[in-house]
Structure formats: structure tokens, C-alpha cells
């Protein structure tokens, strides 16, 4: 493919050849080009490179500086300062007022950098990926979560609280309750700290942003035990993958019941058997 500079060079050489007395048809034949192609290139070289007229036209209904100032003043007034143009223009039209079209409002506000945020709430804050937590031995980093266990009553569930050590993959604490509660979670955490002989500042406990995880009772218990809380980022579903993976292992086992648990005792009995198998028999 012949580029534009190459075309211009060919046109210049053919022009010089014609001025020297050469016939254009023969000169084109030497270059392997048709006369029509060269004529088209010559016509293209006589217009502006972007094929547009260089003269700039301004619309007759363009806003004057006074009109633009009046539009900005109205858009930034106490009544309309928090509204987008899509709401300003209809409200003015209901009063029989017309300053400019909706697109003109958007264009003027955008030109003055006043379009990005026009609401009274706080602007979005940048969020950074949190520092990755790492464990080099047991009882340094725990993860916990709550999952549903089906009951015989439609719409009602038992709730399995499960704490796992991320280094050893050991289930360090569990219990099945009839409700989700920060108080119940704190009782279970106290039992784990006593059984594992946890020292203050020894363990980081990671969880998602659920109510029991961030409840006042649970946070107070963690502070009293010296356990450092850690939470997933808002709206990030994969920040607590170890607990989710453990729940999948639990519910995808071949011995997982096909029918709902008859009562709380049945659920606790089955989970106790699973924890025994997970901690002492299965290979990670």
C-alpha cells in the first residue's frame, strides 16, 4: 500500500517530468501507474489533508457569555445545585422558563468542570487492596463464617459457625445454633481462646462484613481476648475464600444428608462427625 507521503512524492516527480517535456501517459507507464490514479492523487493533494473545509462556522443560536453566566448561576443556585441537568430543565419548563436545552446544560457544566458531582453526599473514596495476611505457624491467623443448614420447615435454617486455622487448616471451633448472633459468636470465640491457650495479640481473626462478625458484642470480646479483627473489603466476595472453600467441602461430601436435618441435635451430630473426619482423617 502506497502511503500519503509516497503519493505526494510521485505527484511531484511527475509534475517535474511534464515540465521537462515528458508525456504524462508514458511517465505513468514507467512507474506502473494508470493516468487516472495519478490524476486522483493530484486532486487529493490540492485539498486540505483532513478533507474538511478550514473555515469554522458558529451556530447563530450560540449562547453569549451573558447567557452562559446566567445558566451557570441558575445551575449552581441553592435550589438546583444538587441536581443534574436532566432534572433542572424539566423543573424550569414546568414554570415556563427556558434557558437552554438539556444537552446545552450538560455541555456548559462539563466545560466548567461542574458536572462530575452535583449531589450533597460524600464523593466516592479510593479503595486500595489491603495488605495480605500471612501465617507461618498454627494459631496465628483464623478465618470464620456462618453457613445455612436446612431444616424441615421451609424458610427456616440452622446456622453453622465455623472457625478454621489457615496454616494447619484445622477446624479450631464450631457450633450449630438456631439463629445468627454476635453474642453466640463471642461465646464460641471465648471457648476457642481458652482451649487453644491464645495469648493477647497472637491471633488475627478474619471474617466478612456480616452482622454477627461486626457486632458490638463480638468486637468487644475480641478486644478483651487480644484477638486482632480483620474484615473483607466491602462488596468483595472473594476476600474470605478459606471459609467458603471449607463450606463447599462440607456440603459437597457424598455423605451430606439429602434430606433436611430433623432437629438441632441431628445437625450438631452430623457436623461433629464431619469435623472429626476433616481434622483427623482427610488429606488436605
How is this structure best described in words?
This protein has 284 residues and is α/β, with parallel strands linked by helices. It has three domains: 4-45; 65-111; 141-280, Nucleotidyltransferase, domain 5, CATH 3.30.420. 43% of the residues lie in helices and 12% in strands. The chain has eleven helices and five strands. It has helices at residues 4-19, 24-31, 35-45, 65-75, 85-94, 102-111, 182-196, 211-214, 216-225, 241-251, 264-280; strands at 141-150, 157-165, 171-177, 204-207, 228-231. Strands 3-2-1-4-5 form a five-stranded mixed beta sheet, sandwiched between helices. Strand 2 and strand 3 (171-177) form a beta hairpin. Helix 1 (4-19) crosses helix 3, helix 5 (85-94) packs across helix 6 (102-111) and helix 7 (182-196) packs parallel to helix 9. The mean pLDDT is 88.
